[in-house]
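Need tokens for this chain, all 314 residues.
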Amino acid sequence: MKSFKIILLAAISLVLVAAGWIYQAGLSAGQTVFSSTYYHEAVAETELTSYIHEVAQDRLMEEMSAEMPDNMAMVVTRVFLTVFDEQWVGEKLLVVSDDVVLYITGEQPAPRAVIDLREEKEQLGKNLELALTVIPGQILSMLGFDPQELDDLAVALVEQMPLPDLITVQDLLAMNSLNGDLASLLNMARHYHSYYLYVSFAVFILMLFAAYRLAGIPAALKWFGASAVISGACFYIAMQAGRFVLPTMFELGMVDESFYGSEAYISVMNFSVERMLHIPAYYTLFGILVVLAGLLTGSFYFNRAKVKSGAENE
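Here are the structure tokens for all 314 residues:
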């Protein structure tokens, strides 16, 4: 019978460890993906906007080079990036993130933000017209443009770029990214945000009650606390391992060069981990305190029983 109780308590402990992971993951998400402050600080303190800007430069240069001579493609790309610079990227990234956070946290039913590109497109045309003066007239003529009508050429180049007047955040989220459909992922996050706290607490209370019925209050507290210590420690180790394992895999050539192998990813990951590390640390400390509470409670019951036994013997 005693061994059967231990098996049941061990099973309860495993459930508590898993529930602790879910609870800590939810708290970590609250400090990161569910927080507007996180995105504002990440844009300011990481290499994310630089990475996005560099990727845009490479892709635009590749596309423009397929349509025109390299020197002209370089001019168009540089002008584009002076209008849509890193500051612009950071500002629009925050517009998107703030809107998405409001959606995930249930403060609005759907993403609503709209990015207006009309002013930038107009400025892009003006800058291109000025920049095209460095392109030799012969090249412009070969491409079918009149060197005397650079304004028409600038307009044509802007129209050739895939730049709508307005971009909604819903359109951006519908695009497939490195991790698949962002809209589906965010929809899952929205539901997770609504339930993780209540589900975790329900599991904690149910398992603590089950442990109490099996072994009494002192043992239940000790098993609960030990489970929290294991859960917190494992979560902490996993977070620390993640920030070192992937960069090492990239250096060894085990991960293709992509966002996950970039300095931007490493900076964002380190920033995120540093922001979350206190969560498993506090959770582990909480577990230690619960174990101590179980020991003190057990000592109290033991002393009370001893006093009661002594009184009966007298």
